[in-house]
From TrEMBL:
It comes from the Bacteria. This is Helix-turn-helix transcriptional regulator. Residues 191-207 have a biased composition (Basic and acidic residues). InterPro entries: Metal_resp_DNA-bind_regulator (IPR052509), Tscrpt_reg_PadR_N (IPR005149), WH-like_DNA-bd_sf (IPR036388), WH_DNA-bd_sf (IPR036390). Residues 12-92 form the Transcription regulator PadR N-terminal domain. Pfam families: PadR. Keywords: Coiled coil. Residues 182-207 are annotated as: Disordered. Residues 124-165 form a coiled coil.
Length: 207
């Protein structure tokens, strides 16, 4: 499975965890809620849905706005996709993962979108991993700029600075999020601070 398809499957499972949807609605939610999917097409989504159905993580249900009129009018019934019990369990397993893949540009934004369903210790590991990755990137960018500054024209230099500033802003944002989590102000959706697991034992940047 490619990294891109893995991110899409995670996002689809996460959105369907909230409620069943038909393909058009699901694509719209992916476009509007998760920016990383703004450019993807039906040709990408439907093979993903078929794969998840075949794996038993989604179920297809046929519906129609007007079940009596549809057969007479020859209208195609809509297929609604619903998360199965196995799919929910699989999504929970994915939520618990906090390794390096979760820190990368494409995956991080999608993982962050579902932080409301993620345990706090996992959230902390993902945030700290992302910050570490960006700090490494920022150090390399500064070193590269110091070596090449004199050979760059003004516009290329400004582009380099813009990229560095974008990374610096995200690092500051991550610092604030991490501090909030450490202070216990971060809350998973629908879960009071004293419930769930024992918390004592949690934008596209220039590369």
């Amino acid at each position: 499975m490619s990294r891109r398809s893995g991110v899409l499957e995670f996002a689809v499972l996460g959105l369907l965890r909230e409620s069943p949807m038909h393909g058009y609605e699901l694509r719209k939610r992916l476009n509007t809620s998760l920016g990383v999917f703004r450019a993807f097409s039906y040709g990408t989504l439907y093979p993903c849905l078929k794969t998840l159905v075949a794996q038993g993580w989604l179920a297809e249900e046929t519906t129609s706005d007007d079940p009596l009129a549809a057969p007479l009018a020859g209208r195609r019934a809509k297929i609604v996709y619903r998360l199965t019990s196995a799919g929910k369990e699989h999504f929970e397993d994915l939520l618990a993962q906090s390794g390096p893949d979760a820190w990368e540009d494409e995956q991080f934004g999608v993982r962050f979108a579902f932080f409301g369903h993620t345990e706090r210790d996992v959230r902390m590991r993902v945030l700290e991993g992302r910050r570490s990755r960006l700090e490494e990137r920022l150090e390399k960018m500064r070193a590269s700029l110091a070596r090449t500054r004199e050979r760059l024209d003004d516009y290329t230099l400004e582009l380099q600075r813009h990229g560095m500033e974008s990374v610096e802003r995200e690092v500051r944002w991550l610092n604030e999020l991490i501090e909030t989590e450490r202070a216990g102000r971060g809350r998973a959706k629908g879960r009071p601070a004293d419930q769930g697991r024992d918390d004592t034992n949690p934008t596209d940047n220039t590369k």
